[in-house]
Amino acid sequence: MSLFVSLYRRFAHIVHELAKFGSVGAIAFLITIGTGNLLHVGLDLGELTSTGIATVVAATFAYLANRYWTFRNRDQSGMGREYVLFFALNGVGLLITWLVQGVVKFGLELRGPLAYNASLIVGTAAATLFRYWSYKKWVFLPLPPPEPAAVGEMGPDAPRARGGFAEGRQAPGTAEFSAPPSGTASPLTPGR
Predict the structure, then answer these.
(1) Domain boundaries, the chain
(2) Helices (H), 66-148
(3) What angle do CA 105, 106, 109 make, to 5 degrees?
(4) Nearest CA-CA partner of 124 in 85, 144, 98, 106
(5) Maximum alpha-carbon separation in the chain
(6) Do 119 and 100 touch, CB atoms closer than 8 A?
(7) Is-contact 140 82, C-beta < 8 A?
(8) CA-CA distance, 69 to 142, in Å (whole number)?
(9) How far apart are CA 98 and CA 51, in angstroms?
(10) Over the stretch 94-139, which tens digit does the pLDDT of each residue have?
(11) What is the CA radius of gyration of the chain?
């Protein structure tokens, strides 16, 4: 088996998740660019205001697409909680984009549609890295691990753990005990 195939199998879930996140991000980016340019270039609204409004519109789309498509196999801890966290983290992402725009406009003194779009692209790219990490960490949480089977409920096909309760040892505090070695008294066996 080739190294590439082995790595792909190991990280397939992350590759698929990143592909979905990237697709949603690309559409959200087009929404941001389109809305931002419409407001800034078309309606002569300020750069930061245009970017802010465009980000809210794109973030609404991104939240719904990520919740119901990208991260649908993760724990859904409530739309209200997720929505507030999602938009708070998008606010941080917006600050990252504004920082890049501020450096381009005020630090480098570049203005006009080309400078606006270049700063928007670079700022959005940096903010996207932060968003992917933060969404997985705080918004779309991993599913909780499955409940372990109770002792005695593990059927005959269950894997046997070495030295664990699955090998015939009982869990502490249970009424059943393994038979003691022959010739020793058992507290549960009268007459010995």
Answers:
(1) 10-139
(2) 79-102, 113-134
(3) 65
(4) 98
(5) 97
(6) yes
(7) yes
(8) 15
(9) 8
(10) 899 999 999 998 999 888 889 988 998 899 889 988 988 888 888 8
(11) 28
